[in-house]
What does this fold into?
Amino acid sequence: MIMMMTGCSGARRETSPILQGVSEPTVKKTILALQEKYPDSDADRLRRGVEQAGALWRAEDGSEQDFSDFVQEHFAGSEQARTDLFLSLSRLMENLNESYDLLTVNILKPTQLMGPDEPTDVDWIMSGFNPAAHLTDDLFANKVAFITILNFPFYTLEEKNSLGVEWSRLGWAEARLGDVFTSRVPAGVLANLSQAYADAENYIADYNICMDRLRTEDGRQLFPDSMLLLSHWNLRDEIKAHYGDSLQPNPCQEMIYDVMLRIVRQEIPKAVINNPEALWYPVSNRVENASDEPETDRRYQMILNIFHAMQQQDEYCPNMPTGIIRNFEGDIEIPAAQVDSLFRQLLGSEQVKTVAAEIRSRLGRDLRPYDIWYDGFKARSAINEKQLDRQTEALYPNAEAYRQRIPDMLRQLGFDKALAQDIASHIVVEAARGSGHAWPCVGRNEPARLRTRIPASGMNYKGFNIAVHEMGHNVEEVTSLYYIDHYMLRGIPNTGFTEASAFLFQHRDLQLLGYGKQTLDREAVLDAFWGMYEIMGVSLVDMRMWQWLYAHPWAGAEHLRDATLAIAAEVWNDYFEPVLGEHDCPLLAIYSHMVNSPMYLPNYPIGHIVQFQLEQFFADKTDRQWAEQYQRCYRLGRLTPEEWLRQATGSTLSVEPILKQVSN
It folds into this structure.
């Protein structure tokens, strides 16, 4: 949590109207004094620490002489003193992270979890409250932040990748401690961003379509009574569910496609969102029993609100002066240009035509835009989904039933009994109000939380599939915290690596229902490729939308809407129209992540790439060996993506392995 709040580069910078820092002569004088006092200390680390602390020192912290005195008093000049300080700061970080996270979890329960009562106005207001907004200010005020910076300086991504090859585990942990305090973003700015995120999250969490109230133009009801689908997740999954119904264009899929287009174009009537009273004809956009007034750009205003709140941080982060840079070089730790190139390599490959031709042959028809979610390669496509629903509803009538079966499921995947029990003891399962998600544990007195939607009739197969995905997150979260050697190395290189864990588990969902071991056969390779193809296109739209925002900071919601539709159409025309048809289709802009989780989407294709490379590495392993190797990899902790993959599989992040597999 602290690292999220302070995620800007801390390298030495020049001056700024906001961030003046200590003068260069004072910094140099202080460095020389320390070197004379501690001649055996690492000279480079000493210099970095003084320069970086000086860059963030403000007038309110004291005079330049106060700075020099402070540095000489608090520099850990011996290895023992530095080790003791590292352990003390690590304990502090864990206690603070855990305490604030627990408070946040409890505040958000009414709006995130299903309960006997609906959330009150106060609950919705508090959902935007950030309990830790003032924490960074406080830790700079009491100088703990400066002690950390001075003794554990920041290293750039390039430096981590080059120097880190020689670092010990402790060296990596110390470097991650150096990532904690790299900027001084005021509490008010952090609070504004938290509020913008919360507003967008609440907007998306309640964006349901009452499917039984949709009508064809001749008045037919296609979906069962009481079906309520959350956009975009459930709408997408419902499209996937109908591939077993018929090989020809399916009227249910066509209707959902029309709904999605109305949403991204913001032509959807406000009255049909989460409203069981209104009858809606999506093709003509006609409404009965309610107003047909369109939603009119509320979706894009939510994105703008986050953008403007994020802009307020930019001036406090001179070395990472945009949210784009902070997201890719700071959080994901892969430069945006490299991510863009990686995605375009697969999207523009000849293998796309090969796989599309296979899908066209299986369906016996020309492909439609919604076939980006073709689901026929999965093993479950040969199994009647109603049969799967009956099985999962009987096994998992509620959240507690799922929790109780987690140890058995882990044992099915190869984890030994004691380890399965221990991992499961750190996971709780809760019924989510919105879509399913995993809430990680950030301290070792806290559980990982699996949130999933469970209807009154019990967990259907779609819900089970999502729950297994979230359980994959939870197992990673527990493994990379409770079984790690240094707290500061807890976690994974970036969110894509926890998505990889979730995909590894999700790929084995039928194995957990007794349908046999899932392998990386030809069908699995094609399914993985088509999934990457779809989500890489979506991610490019997200990335380019944010590039457009920074180029047009004056834009209003209507401008952003038009720009996003144009970007989505451009990406579609370049990479999807040749195989799926329909010029200028804006379908790629449907993902709700674009609204409430800016630039999160690239983590999914990165996760798919990592998953595929791990699957290849695990391919010849027994279940027991698979579980052992999984544990070894995810106990590496938060190295950079490049270093993690090198140590885990001996490879680098690349789409070449799956391109080769598709061609074989």
Notes: The first strand starts at residue 208 and ends at 210.
